[in-house]
Design goal:
about 15% strand, four-stranded mixed β-sheet, five-stranded parallel β-sheet
Length: about 300
């Protein structure tokens, strides 16, 4: 009886209680199926605390319906018989905006690719061929204090410099990374990287294992690290002998160093086995690595 009286009083207070007013409250918000626990005080409390949540979309549609407005109908010709240009314009009109010709995917960022590996694995040969077959790539020329080997060109293979000039470059903070390798200094000029990345070119760096570790600490995961290795230790020693640039003492040093360097393979992102006589396959694999990196949704971003 108390429930009926309350409902009658609420109905009399609003001649049409089912109109959707924003401030209208719902007396049935909480209904206890056990009538013996239902009280006027509890209903009034629920009436104050639990207003009806009216959908904004439903409310906002009333003015448009009242004025009789309807979505604009755009006739679209049958795709199987319509002229392509006519169909294209009709589709644009139907969606309400012209179709953009801009790329849906963002432009890939320029990459820094660090190539490293033991002496004699063919780093120079892979990089040389990569530069021949791939566009928009720049090989950073390293500065070094060692003497030129037969056939090497200053400014192309290395920047050959004196020890005094190299130390001056270190003091001026012009090198991204440098190290003392087999008694000679080698370092990577920063400005050369900045200039070519600003042109949208990918950067290739050739460093030893020690240099790769230093670059990893500087560049973190913003660069791609590729470990180049021979197919076996036997093949590696054979290549070092064929170079005919080492004494018996330096051969022993390079072999011992190579054994230690191979243990660092797990610190790199990719490994490429450069088998004897299969240079083209190695270069194709490096290109695939670059392409895969550029297709990533989350691109590497480098700041030098």
């Amino acid at each position: 009886m108390q429930f009926r009286r309350l409902y009658t009083s609420l109905a009399n207070s609003n001649r049409n209680p089912f109109l959707l007013y924003r401030n209208l409250t719902n007396p049935f918000a909480v209904f206890d199926p056990n009538p013996q626990f239902l009280s006027t005080q509890r209903i009034l409390k629920n009436r104050v605390q639990r207003p009806i949540r009216v959908s904004k979309r439903f409310v906002s549609s009333f003015p448009a319906m009242a004025e009789g407005r309807r979505p604009t109908h755009v006739p679209i010709p049958p795709p199987e018989t319509a002229d392509k240009a006519e169909l294209y314009r009709a589709l644009e009109a139907a969606v309400g905006s012209p179709f953009s010709s801009e790329s849906l995917a963002p432009e890939p960022h320029p990459l820094i690719i660090v190539v490293s590996g033991p002496s004699g694995v063919g780093k120079d040969a892979v990089i040389k061929r990569l530069r021949e077959v791939r566009e928009n790539i720049h090989f950073v020329v390293t500065a070094t204090t060692r003497g030129k080997r037969p056939g090497e060109v200053d400014g192309k293979d290395y920047f050959f410099t004196s020890k005094e000039e190299f130390l001056s470059m270190i003091e001026r903070h012009e090198l991204l990374e440098y190290a003392l390798v087999y008694g000679d200094y080698k370092g990577i000029p920063k400005q050369q990287i900045r200039d070519h990345m600003a042109k949208g070119l990918d950067i290739v760096l050739r460093v030893d294992i020690q240099g790769a570790a230093t670059l990893r600490s500087i560049l973190k995961n913003s660069a791609v690290f590729v470990f180049l290795v021979a197919e076996s230790e036997d093949a590696l020693v054979s290549r070092l002998i064929d170079r005919k640039t080492e004494t018996k003492e330096t051969l022993l040093v390079r072999i011992a160093t190579a054994r230690e360097e191979v243990r660092h393979m797990g610190e790199f992102d990719y490994v490429v086995v450069n088998r004897e006589g299969e240079l083209e396959n190695s270069v194709k694999l490096v290109q695939s690595i670059i392409d895969a990196e550029k297709a990533k949704v989350r691109q590497r971003t480098v700041t030098i």
